[in-house]
């Protein structure tokens, strides 16, 4: 990692590996009042204009919000995304530090709600919300 890729205090390598996110590694995460995923934007995260791709951003928001809710869903086998909404407010470029700060809003017996703010070097670039089905049995 170069000087521009310093990881802020409190972040550790993200524990949740997935074939979908493997090309975006390294990802970082921390538990706080919710759950935050962080990364340095690289070319592999960008669209043809050199900006962080909206699909990458939405996938990371979905991941962070799901984990934030799962942490509060006692006895859950998993969560399934039922609804995901992302509002794009700005853009991010290669080298910027992204934080997806997710917070559970309500976690019930079968449904969970979450919100997230996405920051690029501290500036808002997106907000997201999601609804998850809480899976309580092995067969979903």
From TrEMBL:
Sequence similarity: Belongs to the thioesterase PaaI family.
Name recorded for this polypeptide: PaaI family thioesterase
Residue span, Thioesterase domain: 50-124
Lineage: Bacteria, Pseudomonadati, Pseudomonadota, Alphaproteobacteria, Sphingomonadales
Gene3D superfamilies given in the database record: Hotdog Thioesterase
The keyword DNA-binding appears for this protein: no
Record keywords, A-Z: Hydrolase
Residue stretches spanning the membrane: none
Species the sequence originates in: Sphingomonas corticis
InterPro entries documented for this protein: ACOT13, HotDog_dom_sf, PAAI_dom, Thioestr_dom
């Amino acid at each position: 990692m170069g000087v521009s890729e310093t990881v802020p205090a409190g972040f550790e390598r993200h524990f949740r590996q997935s074939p979908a996110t493997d090309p975006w590694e390294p990802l970082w995460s921390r538990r706080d009042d919710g759950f935050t995923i962080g990364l340095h934007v690289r070319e592999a995260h960008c669209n043809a204009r050199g900006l962080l791709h909206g699909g990458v951003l939405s996938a990371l928001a979905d991941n962070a919000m799901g984990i934030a809710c799962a942490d509060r869903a006692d006895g859950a086998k998993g969560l399934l995304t039922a609804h995901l909404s992302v509002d794009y407010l700005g853009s991010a470029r290669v080298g910027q530090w992204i934080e997806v700060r997710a917070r559970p809003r309500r976690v019930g017996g079968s449904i969970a709600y979450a919100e997230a703010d996405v920051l690029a070097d501290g500036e808002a670039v997106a907000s997201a919300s999601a609804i998850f089905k809480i899976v309580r049995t092995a067969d979903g």
